[in-house]
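Request from the bench team (R.T.):
"We need a structural guess for the complex before ordering more flavin-adenine dinucleotide. Sequence and SMILES attached. Just send the tokens back."

Command: build protein-flavin-adenine dinucleotide structure.
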Amino acid sequence: MARETSSGPNPQETMPVPAFESLMRQLPAEALLIGDAIEPRFRETLSEVPAARPAFVMRPRNTREVSICLSTCDALHQPVAVQGGRTGFHGGERACPGEAILSLERMTDLAAVDVAGGSIEAQAGVPLQRVQEAAVDAGMYFGVDIGSRGSATIGGNVASNAGGIRVLRYGMFRAQVLGVEAVLADGTVLTSLKGLAKDNSGLDLNQLFIGSEGTLGVVTRACLKLHPRPAAETAAFCAVPSLAAAVKLLSRLRVALGPLLSAFELIFADAFEGALALRDTQRPVAAAPFYVLAELHALHAEHDIDVFAAALASAHEDGIVSDVTLAQSPREFAALWALRDACSEHLSTLDRLVACDISVQPARMETFVAEAGDSIRALDPTARFPVFGHLGDGNLHYIIQTDRPADVVDGVYRCVQRLGGSIAAEHGIGIDKKPYLHFSRSDAEIATMRRLKRAFDPNNILNPGRIFDAVAGGSAQGAVA
Ligand SMILES: Cc1cc2nc3c(=O)[nH]c(=O)nc-3n(C[C@H](O)[C@H](O)[C@H](O)COP(=O)(O)OP(=O)(O)OC[C@H]3O[C@@H](n4cnc5c(N)ncnc54)[C@H](O)[C@@H]3O)c2cc1C
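Reply to R.T.: structure attached below.
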């Protein structure tokens, strides 16, 4: 968690804050916090950079109150940082100096599952896990799962277009959204919650808010798609001799299983050994340079598991896999996933880490790992690679332990750029990765983002300076010229 900037007196406590005073006349007392009433958690984010002391905090209970908050802040040019569960990695939710916080934490209504429509409607502050549990209780399934499921919110998931472990089967958060309600910076409410699979009546404005990291509007509600619950699930842990072999295995399983292949995770030896030590458990397969965790979401339990087992056996015979374990029970299934989860937990025991969340086409992954690895070892021969990620989506959490962080990041992103990849596969840009956006996006694309921002938020009050600056090379805050 980030440190606070200072523990001294807040100059704003002694100065009038016009937007706060105006809101006091419009909202119930429990919706507003200022000064010492602001609990430390509003400044606790996962970013390394300390949060500023917020000018004040808004905690609306419904869409109407969000609209009041934003129209008031817009009229008085009060910049606002939007917060969901504060589990983002790159500081989009972190308050910058002078900003007020708009927290969606009191907006936690969750409607009943619509089984016939295969959907559920949630307010922005509902934690992801509640949606997953409601779906299972209704005999259905929600397609996105991420490690922060207990704290990350539906509004934050929509705003960051969260990915996670089953994108291969169900798509990213964007693919789960049937409709969104969002409030623009001037308080205008856009409601599109009809839950229609088909609606070509004009521009699809919903899509603009998904992955916009709170720069274009505040998501207040979402109508989410649910999937049929898998008849059975199982997973195999594979030792693979090379990255090329891992990609071959991916192709084989895709052909054999089609959409039933629900996850295909790659783990480098450094990350695997760390996870194993952390869990203090037996290795599920013999040692290898790389490991794969492949998961099946079966529709016809016995038949699909037989097809999975046969594909793995043939990969073993052909030397694509050097050793393999197929989970035979829910307990073994959970144990294999626990090892994968331990890869992220292991990172908290390490120092000097640089974390790059990259994607390239799976067929280019071998080239990426070879070229990026060579460039890093040339800079820092002692660098280590506790890397893991979602190879099925061409996405690696490319984590390096090094004494040369700045040079290493630059080298990795240049390599991603050469291979036509992305420097932010699923964790977004926020504030902290803004200097690197140009490695993934052209000048024309960034200029178009600015034009959209200007149209939606002409006073630049909403999450200013996130993803890109409103003016090229300009400051994070202030009106758009
Ligand atoms: C252990 C762990 C595992 C994770 N695993 C994954 C993973 O596998 N895949 C993945 O994609 N991410 C992952 N994340 C990152 C993070 O959980 C996601 O980005 C998540 O979607 C953020 O949700 P949040 O509610 O915490 O949003 P916050 O962190 O509060 O905010 C994230 C961004 O969205 C904006 N925002 C928040 N709410 C709204 C709203 N209602 N309207 C408009 N803008 C809003 C914020 O201003 C900020 O820019 C992980 C994080 C942790 C800690």
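Two things stood out. Residues 46, 82-89, 92-93, 104, 124, 146-148, 152-153, 155-157, 159-160, 162-164, 213-214, 218-219, 344, 426-427, 430, 463, 466 surround flavin-adenine dinucleotide (CB under 6 Å). Residues 1-12, 476-481 have pLDDT under 50 and may be disordered.
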